[in-house]
Write a structure and sequence with these properties.
Number of helices: 10
Oligomer: single chain
Number of strands: 7
Strand content: 5-15%
Largest sheet: 5 strands, mixed
Strand order of the largest sheet: 2-4-5-7-6
Distance between the termini: 36 Å
């Protein structure tokens, strides 16, 4: 089942356009009202010149506030610590208020002093209170503008974070379902049950262990934590269970090499990511080999990053293991890596030389908090059949 993308993702472009229209609407209405209010309290009845000057002053406020918005977006002010952000906002308010005061006085001097406007007798006299009143007036205006702008920007930031969290949950639910379908597909289940039937009379004890393996595999798929990550130790345990079941089918054709040091096992990985890569290696590699095939799983930590490699014998055919080769499998891993780690998480697949194909997963090395409860999506102990498999 391929679930449709979230409606919010589809309409991101349209949403941004609506916000842009709303921004300009608010800018024009807000600064237009400011200019209109200035005309309601004139020293004399408003004239055409006063009308033009009032709204020209409002236009300057609109342009300066828009310039502040461009600066905020270009320098990512919202990504900065709250103390740094507050200092920047207060500094911007002061600078903009000073600029508006200078512009107002420049106009006042040009009109009433340099040109000696005859329509304004007595208004040409300057008073020290005028710049102070203008500074106070513009400080209030730009403070209101910043309060509204940053309030809405913070709300939208929270909304986007919530949307990303919901998309991640959807991707995880999709991956959980697809992995369950992959484990329960008729071909896999048919081969598994046939292998169990052959074991019933030959080795009843091993048959019981195999049934336990299958039960643990399905339970892990259904109960994986909704947080989206599990420890590498949990993932390796379920991979061992899966390989043990595949070994019932492939028998001596499957060789497994596992090198996962204890030091990296507590690291967090996307749930079912390693299992999907191993299943991909079985499906497109070992099961197609006419003779014996091998899988090598290795993990290590380098410079604060977890490097996990799943190799299988075979040949890499570009496009064959593309994003849709397992339905949502590899595509889901890439999507979840992007949502969890952005560009810090990568998945690459290609020829490794010497007749090997490698899927390489790299992501930041993250350990669970000591106080955090263990992930509830895996079983504490999953018996393995690798040691007893033929």
């Amino acid at each position: 089942m391929n679930l449709p993308p979230p409606p919010l993702d589809v309409s991101v472009g349209a949403t941004e356009r609506r916000w842009r229209r709303l921004y300009w609407t608010c800018q024009i209405i807000g600064w237009g009202l400011y200019g209109g209010v200035n005309l309601l309290f004139p020293i004399r009845p408003p004239t055409a010149a006063a009308f033009v000057s009032s709204f020209a002053f409002s236009a300057c406020g609109l342009l300066l506030s828009h310039g502040l918005r461009a600066l905020v977006r270009r320098q990512a002010w919202l990504e900065r610590p709250i103390g740094d952000l507050l200092r920047r906002v207060l500094g911007a308010i002061f600078v903009l208020a000073v600029l508006m005061t200078i512009l107002a006085h420049g106009y006042w001097w040009l009109r009433f002093v340099a040109l000696g406007d005859p329509l304004a007798p007595g208004e040409g006299r300057w008073s020290p209170a005028i710049p102070l009143l203008l500074m106070f007036n513009m400080t209030v205006m730009f403070s209101l503008w910043c309060g509204i702008y940053f309030g809405i920007a913070w709300w939208r930031r929270q909304e986007r974070a919530e949307r990303a969290r919901l998309e991640l949950q959807l991707a995880l639910a999709d991956a959980r379902y697809e992995t369950l379908v992959a484990q329960l597909n008729p071909h896999f289940l048919f081969n598994c049950l046939n292998s169990l039937r052959a074991l019933v009379t030959e080795d009843p004890v091993r048959t019981q262990e195999a049934i336990t393996q299958l039960s643990a595999l399905l339970r892990y798929t259904l109960r994986t934590s909704a947080s989206g990550t599990v420890t590498l130790a949990d993932e390796i345990r379920i991979v061992e269970a899966y390989l043990a079941l595949e070994r019932l089918r492939l028998e001596e054709r499957l060789e497994v090499e596992l090198e996962v040091p204890a030091a990296v096992r507590p690291l967090r990985v996307p749930a079912m990511a390693v299992l999907t890569l191993v299943e991909n290696a079985i499906k497109h590699g070992v099961s197609r080999e006419p003779g014996r095939g091998s899988i090598a799983i290795r993990a290590g930590e380098e410079a604060g990053r977890l490097i996990l490699s799943v190799r299988n014998t075979g040949r890499f055919v570009p496009g064959e293991r593309g994003a849709d080769s397992l339905g949502v499998g590899l595509r889901s891993i890439r999507e979840r890596l992007e949502k969890m780690f952005a560009s810090a998480g990568t998945l690459t697949i290609g020829d490794a030389g010497g007749g090997w194909v490698e899927a390489r997963l790299e992501l930041p090395a993250r350990r669970p908090d000591a106080s955090a409860a263990p992930s509830g999506g895996s079983d504490a102990a999953i018996p393995t059949l690798l040691a007893t498999a033929p």
